[in-house]
Amino acid sequence: MTEPAFLTATRTAYDTVAESYASTLHDHLAGATFDRAMLDAFAELVGGDGGPVIEVGCGPGRITRYLHESGLDVSGVDLSPSMIEVARRTCPEVSFSVGTMTALEAAGASLAGLVAWYSIIHTPPVALPAVFAEFRRVLRDGGWVLLAFQVGDEVVRVEQAYGHAGLAVDAYRLQPDRIASLLVDAGFTVEARLVREARESVPPEKTSQAYLLAEAEAVIRSPRGR
User: Fold this and answer.
1) I need a surface site. Which of 115, 144, 180, 184 has the fewest CB within 10 A?
2) Which structural domain, as residue segments, surrounds residue 143?
């Protein structure tokens, strides 16, 4: 089966910027009060002994490491082998693997939580329902999902980032109401959302940032034999 073009483009871009991306963002959370607040809320809801958690699109593992230090049984998966190489080197106590959010290797209903931290932004909106269905598949009833993304309606062609030129990947800015609606359609209840203004950080933010925290609804199953 031919891989969708957006996955190939995303992998190529992040393989290119992996080292400089990790260096630029390695301490970004230290000054990101609202980011930490949403991650802390997620960690509290899942609970340290609540079960396994996965970060999809983990990049160099900075968010995965934060969740690990919060007491969660967390692992990371990313499309980019170069990103996974950095993550394994900088956070050897956590398990990382190469994979895609469109076809996770986790068994159905096996996870207590899933984080997609700015990792849905390269997925064409038309493909998001299938991605969220995959998230719901791997989460147990009552499991939690946390999303982070940039707010907007446009697609931005990224050709230069983190000191590298010659990139060719699209980044989609998304509306929180629309993403919340897609989560509901996939079987989630949105419990909290936060939209904050852009920060003068490194790298600088150009638009508002959104965070959605949702719980996987219980699946009503027909009695056996019907």
Assistant:
1) 184
2) 5-200
